[in-house]
Amino acid sequence: MKQRGFTLIELLVVTAIIAILAAILLPVTARVRGYARKTHCIANLSQLGKATDLYSDDYEHWYPCAACMPSTEPEPGLPRIRDLLVFYASPEVFECPDDRPTDPEYPFGSYYEGEGSSYEWAELCNHLKVGQPIRYAPFKLKDVSIMRDYEPFHKRGGSKIGINGLFSDGHVEAF
Question: 73-101 burial, b if ≥16 CB within 10 A, otherwise e?
Fold first, then answer.
């Protein structure tokens, strides 16, 4: 009995089917990876919310008094939020997986490398007690994120416009 191998046509058909399946699956996996990075960022902000709560519990319910981002802060002497929360959160939670600066002049590959955090602290919380209303503001603290992505790192609808934010009640939301 003569052994029969695959013909060239059969091999080409199988290769074409594999190529079609790969073309269908690759965009889906890229989208899923993007959702995973966004979820990781939300989890990081949630951990930072818990760290902020622990900090405020230790300091008589005062929010940390920190610079928005040290390199853009005009007021000297304010520490980075990362330095204040170092005992309450690991350094890894300060890095957003999608942290890529849009400014080509920025000297570092990410804000985490340059600033120590991918997240921006809301300076309106400086010198504010937890639950205290914001003076001279037409909004309530619960409506403002106390920490958020420094830039719109996350894609939404094909363009980078998504920012994740941590609110004073501890929930994290994309906006």
Answer: beeeebebbbebbeebbeeebbbbbbbeb
Per-residue pLDDT of 82-123, as tens digits, reads 888 989 999 999 999 988 888 888 888 888 988 888 998 988
Tokens matching residue 150:
């420094």
From residue 80, alpha-carbon distances to 2, 3, 33, 34, 75 in Å are 77, 73, 30, 28, 12
pTM given for the model: 0.80
| Distance separating the N- and C-terminal Cα atoms of the chain | 69
Cα angle vertex 26, ends 31, 8, to 5°? 170
